[in-house]
Amino acid sequence: MLKNHFKIAFRNLLRYKLHSSINVMGLAIGISACLVIFLLVHHQRSFDTFHPDKERIYRVYTVYSGLFEATNSGIAFPIPDAIRKECTGVEAVGHFMTFSNLKISLGAQKEQGKVFEEQNHIIAAEPDYFRVFDSYHWLAGTPQTALSEPFKVVLTESRAKFYFGNIEPRAALGQEISYNDSLLVTVSGIVSDLPKQTDLKFTDFISFSTIPQSWLKHDVGGLEGMKEWGSTTSASQVFIKLNKDVEAARLSKQLAQLVKKYQPDKDPKLKLVYPMQALADLRYSTIGIFNDSAAPANRKTLNALALVAGLLLLIACINFINLATAQSIQRSKEVGVRKVLGGTRGVLISQFLGETLVITFVAMLFSIALSKGAMAFFREFLPEGLTFDLFTPSVLAFIGAVVLLVSVLAGLYPAFVLSGFRPALALKAKLSSKGTGSGVEWLRKGLIVFQFTFSLALIAGTLIIGRQIKFMQNAELGFNADAVVHFRPPFQYESEKKALLGNQLRQLIGVKSVSIHADAPASQGINTRIFNYKGKKETADYEFLVKGADTAYLHLYDIALLAGRNLLPADSTREYLINETALKQLGFKHPQDALGKGIIEEGKEFPIVGVVKDFHSRSLHEPIRPLVIAISPLNQRRELSLKLATQGKGLDSFKATMEQVEQIWKTVYPGEKFEYTFVDQDIAKFYENEQRTSKIMSAATGIAIFISCIGLFGLVSFMIGRRTKEIGVRKILGASISNIVALLSKELLLLVGISILLGSPIAWYLAQQWLKDFAFHIAIEWWMFALAGGLAIAFALLTLSYQAIRAAIVNPVDSLRNE
Predict the structure, then answer these.
(1) Which candidate, 115, 214, 496, 536, has a CA 20 to 30 Å from the CA of 147?
(2) Residue 612 — φ and ψ, nearest 5°?
(3) E-strand spans in 88-235?
């Protein structure tokens, strides 16, 4: 019987070519979208799930409140030791420092030029790092001794092969590696690489005791900074593993006691908390993962994508139901014959479910090919390491589950409808004028409304996201980044080389201006300090952003000066510029009122000599913050910006100028790699997530509209099929083609209109929630929903007009021949 069911299913697939093709196409697109989203969500949720004690591992980070609000993924240097000595219920504490963009050369082969530039994923780790994360397999050396002494390093297996070639792990022991030409260490261990789905991508583990005896200590403020409880850097990370059966809340209370014990003399207005972040939440960390890590995944986005995948699959199933029930009249006689010959309802249901299974299986084959194409199209937006391997257990399980789910979800209802026909009426082709019953009719219309409600919400959402992205791209930032490139000189050289490089670059004809500064006006980096101001009644504390600059900074970036003058040349801070937001916080009404007033930083008071117009120092997600610009010591100014003289010049002139810049770089920093970026490109990176969301939304909208229109096509097909004779009679009585088209379109456009009324408030609410993440955003206006509704109506008209016009021009004699 089963063989017979599948044979009939394939025959019907070939017999009803149009409906079969539409069904397969709709399901294939819906399933492929669902499959790609499944791969993405599964990839993100599988990070660091392989650790045997993952539920007992936590990261400790820092939260400031009171005097100012801030969160830092790192921890002050002395805290891990205090946890180890004074907290109970802790099995292991792993403290490490992250480093990036290091130049690496191999000890004995250094003279032969074996050098690796700008290497990342390097940490200085305590031996207990490998107790917290015991998923590493030791191929050479032992965890007890490998990092117990200074100037030792443990490498992953892939890193050892990268440095030394394809050698045995034990042969790598004793090899020498130099970091930034000044830190020579000896390989003391080799460990296996962790699986790809991990945020612990570290490859070089330098012994932690090397830090105080090398230049590594400068990243935490030197030996004094290593003792300072109030100095926090995101490079200083600590993970702990709790004892079995110990709850995180118990350690949280002990961490609060540490704050009280070791911070009694600090400013009472400043409150410190050391929360604990579970390893399972690291992938979604809103405070960042590690300094050189990729951007964390967004849990809300993943949940939204999973919901979209489910809804796309659902409307694909709805589309199948509409087409199957639309086709029911054509198959009524077949059902009648089978019932007369003894076919039970159960047998008929199994036959129709078998047909659905065949169609779903064929659609799945097409969806696999579509998924590979979709992943190639979205490659720039997909996380690194995401691949489509058909034969992995998770993918096979998902495909099997989807095939069965879709077969039941899409096929069960049509199977019950078709198998429920009464044989006598079916054989006489005298089914109800309402098709298969008024309940079926209303359900079919409800499914169409659901499809277009979802589609309209996506259309409106895509329009609003697109408008917001355009607004951010074209927003007035308060400074001019056109034709400005910037780069970072190597930090290990003396500061005078930066000044030499800047002076030589100023001589170039193609360079309009040069500035040596700490950060561009808008950057990912953030530097805040506490300032005091003596007002009329009392001295108040303020947290201001600080931009270390030189005298060319304002001119190069066209930052408007509202009052006062620019900074004068100096070798350290002597005076300040403030922005309008800082002006208001300090209580001044007019820019001129602040000139000459002094603000205090670390006990030193310097005057305000100028007020600049507000500019965006971060993305438009954040409000403009109070800001101070000051001359900083040359060794603290890590970037160099060039304003190129591009007016009236073409690309060849730009290339020639940058070649000259590179030649000067090589004379000042021989052997160092020269790389630069445009400032406006860095600003665009602020909105990479929004760009990804926009592209995904556009794709989802296109898919939803396409599948919904196919469902509408099915409903039109059904309506015309049961009203063929009515159309013939109306034409004989004088109805024009436009009258017939209007008759057939009116009911369906009413359904689309209901969808617009239902979808618009849903889209408005979701858009409002999304825009809350932006301090500066567009206003949601009525015309956005009107445009979305107009597009939905246009797509619906395009879908039904072909069928309606085709039915209207049929000769009524052919329609009424059998009467």
Answers:
(1) 115
(2) -105, 155
(3) 90-99, 102-106, 115-119, 122-125, 138-140, 152-156, 176-179, 183-191, 204-207, 232-233
Distance CA 521, CA 286 (A): 23
In this structure, which amino acid lies at residue 259?
V
674 within 8 A of 666, measured Cβ to Cβ? yes
Q: Token pair for residue 703?
A: 């898919």
Answer for the pair 125, 209: CB distance below 8 angstroms, yes or no: no
H or E segment and range at residue 564: strand 561-564
680 touches 547 (CB < 8 A): no
pLDDT, greater one: 819 or 458:
458
Strand partners, 48: none
* End-to-end CA separation in angstroms for the chain: 39
CB contact burial 131-165 (16+ within 10 A = b; e otherwise) = ebbebbeebbbebeebbeeebbbbbbbebbeebbe
DSSP character at residue 539: E
- Is-contact 332 424, C-beta < 8 A? no
CA geometry: angle 134, 137, 142, nearest 5 deg: 85
User: Which of residues 517 and 346 earns the better pLDDT score?
Assistant: 517
| Global pTM value | 0.76
pLDDT of residue 668: 92
Radius of gyration of the chain (CA): 34
Cβ contact 187:136 at 8 Å:
no
Distances, alpha carbon 123 to alpha carbons 100, 229, 796, in Å: 9, 21, 59
Max mean pLDDT among 407-411, 635-639, 711-715 falls in: 635-639
Torsions phi, psi of 95, nearest 5? -100, 135
Taking phi over 0 as left and psi of -120 to 50 as alpha, with beta for the rest, 437 belongs to left
Contact 551, 559 (CB under 8 A): no
242 and 22 Cβ atoms separated by less than 8 Å: no
Question: Exposure of 574 by Cβ count < 10 A (0-12 exposed, 13-18 middle, 19+ buried)?
Answer: middle
Alpha carbons 523 and 518: distance in angstroms, whole number: 10
Say which residue the tokens 């010049």 belong to: 649
Asked whether 255 and 86 are in contact (CB, 8 A), the reply is no
- Residue pointed to by tokens 């009413």: 750
By C-alpha distance, which of 173, 176, 128, 127 is closest to 151?
A: 176
CB of 639 closer than 8 Å to CB of 485? no
Angle at 342 between CA 339 and CA 348, to 5 degrees: 55
**Residue among 83, 106, 78 at smallest CA distance from 204:** 106
- Give pLDDT tens digits for 213-268: 998 887 776 777 777 777 788 889 999 999 998 899 999 999 988 888 876 555 66
Averaged pLDDT for residues 731-752: 82
- Which of 750, 484, 479 has its CA nearest to residue 616? 479
Helices 782-808 & 438-474 angle (0-180, nearest 10): 140
Q: With contact defined as beta carbons under 8 Å apart, do 639 and 488 qualify?
A: yes
Q: What is the pLDDT of residue 332?
A: 63
Rounded to an integer, what distance in angstroms lies between the CA atom of residue 658 and that of residue 616? Answer: 28
**Model confidence at 631: pLDDT above 90:** yes
**CA dihedral of 162, 163, 164, 167, whole degrees rounded to 10:** -40
Query: If phi over 0 gives left and psi between -120 and 50 gives alpha, with beta otherwise, what is residue 648?
Result: left
Give the model's confidence band at 328: pLDDT under 50 very low, under 70 low, under 90 confident, else very high: low
The residue whose two tokens read 């409808």 is 417
Instruction: Identify which has the larger pLDDT, 738 or 162.
Output: 162
pLDDT digits (tens, 9 = 90+) for 536-578: 677 788 889 899 999 999 999 999 999 999 999 988 888 999 9
Q: What separation in angstroms does the CA of 646 have from each of 158, 663, 681?
A: 46, 20, 17
Tokens of 732: 């004989």
Contact 356, 407 (CB under 8 A): yes
